[in-house]
Design goal:
- It is a single chain.
- The protein has 13 helices and five strands.
- By secondary structure, it is of the alpha+beta class.
- A five-stranded mixed β-sheet has the order 1-5-2-4-3, with helices on both faces.
- A hairpin with a 6-residue loop joins strand 3 and strand 4.
- About 25% of the residues are buried.
- The model has no long low-confidence stretch (mean pLDDT about 90).
Length: about 325
């Protein structure tokens, strides 16, 4: 008894995990993402078995599923196999549309929030007290990002945070304002794309300095620009990763499914994310056209000028 309850209590005791859950609740206040998918221990015990069954029958119904086969087995046999599992089901209790993830509307102004995270007595009693965390989050899109732009933002992450010599990572570590970088970068795992970066182990009085440092560093990076060598190196890494994915002989079927599912589960074309050549050529064409300023313009668009920005301060409790 209480397995999930205790698991979620354990997850909530991790400062980074607590900060991430609170960030999603603040960044996506009008969508399902505001909830902790594993359940909030404060409310888990309020769940009735009747509610649990109703949720299961609606959300775990085959009409809300995605079915994928990989290999050269006969299509007819696949359909028979599916029918053997699915023929016993009728319609879901409610239309399947009620299970769809909502789209978060973009904010007109940035927001700043403080949230508590757990610390030990030893940390609290340390000289200067327990340290804070500061992380900034951006929601990049309301409408679907073109696949070329999604790929390009992965390159932006590498350029900014990919190594200890990357300019944003270097600025954060060199500042000595925190103990370690929280380099989330771009994430496309949700319906809408996000970007995040921050520092943990920050003195209370230095928290505003971290926010200013991140914003100022992004401005400086865009103004100075990346060198041709930096851009070419990161583009080569992107191309290598794409080729490695396409030629991989280990679990290729599962890799294809996971890539396809990232669009499929949101009612988007499951094959679009598997077509790498055209988006890659679009990035190369943009680089040639803009004289290597393409990635700088993406930083300006999605991070500097973007008003859907959340500054989340983790306060030790």
């Amino acid at each position: 008894k209480g397995i999930v309850y205790n698991e979620m209590k354990g997850a909530g005791s991790s400062p980074e995990s607590k900060l991430q859950h609170d960030a999603m609740a603040e960044l996506f206040p009008n969508t399902t993402y505001r909830f902790n998918s594993g359940g909030d221990p404060k409310f888990i015990t309020d769940l009735t078995f009747k509610q649990f069954k109703a949720y299961y029958h609606q959300y775990y119904h085959p009409s809300n599923g995605r079915f994928y086969f990989y290999g050269d087995d006969p299509v007819e046999e696949r359909l028979k196999l599916l029918d053997s599992y699915l023929s016993e089901f009728g319609k879901p209790p409610e239309p399947v549309e009620v299970t769809r993830i909502e789209t978060q509307k973009m904010w007109k102004e940035p927001r700043r929030v403080e949230t508590a995270f757990p610390v030990t007595e030893q940390q609290a009693d340390a000289e200067g007290g327990a340290k804070h965390m500061l992380k900034m989050y951006w929601l990049l899109n309301e409408n679907v990002l073109p696949h070329s732009e999604q790929l390009a933002m992965s390159v932006v992450t590498s350029l900014l945070l990919g190594s200890t010599s990357s300019p944003l990572y270097k600025a954060l570590t060199k500042s000595k304002l925190g103990e370690s970088v929280m380099a989330g970068g771009v994430s496309g795992s949700l319906k809408q794309t996000t970007f995040s970066v921050g520092l943990k182990g920050v003195k209370k009085d230095d928290v505003p300095k971290v926010e200013s440092l991140i914003k100022d560093s992004l401005h400086d990076i865009v103004n100075k620009g990346f060198t041709k060598a930096e851009v070419e190196s990161n583009m080569n890494s992107l191309e290598f990763g794409i080729r490695e994915f396409s030629s991989s002989s280990t679990n290729l079927g599962m890799s294809i499914f996971l890539q396809a599912a990232s669009d499929w589960i949101y009612e988007r074309d499951p094959v679009a994310g598997l077509r790498f050549k055209a988006p890659l050529e679009e990035i190369k064409a943009a680089l040639a056209k803009d004289g290597q300023r393409y990635f700088e313009e993406l930083i300006a668009k999605h991070l500097i000028k973007n008003r859907h920005r959340l500054t989340l301060e983790g306060v030790p409790d």
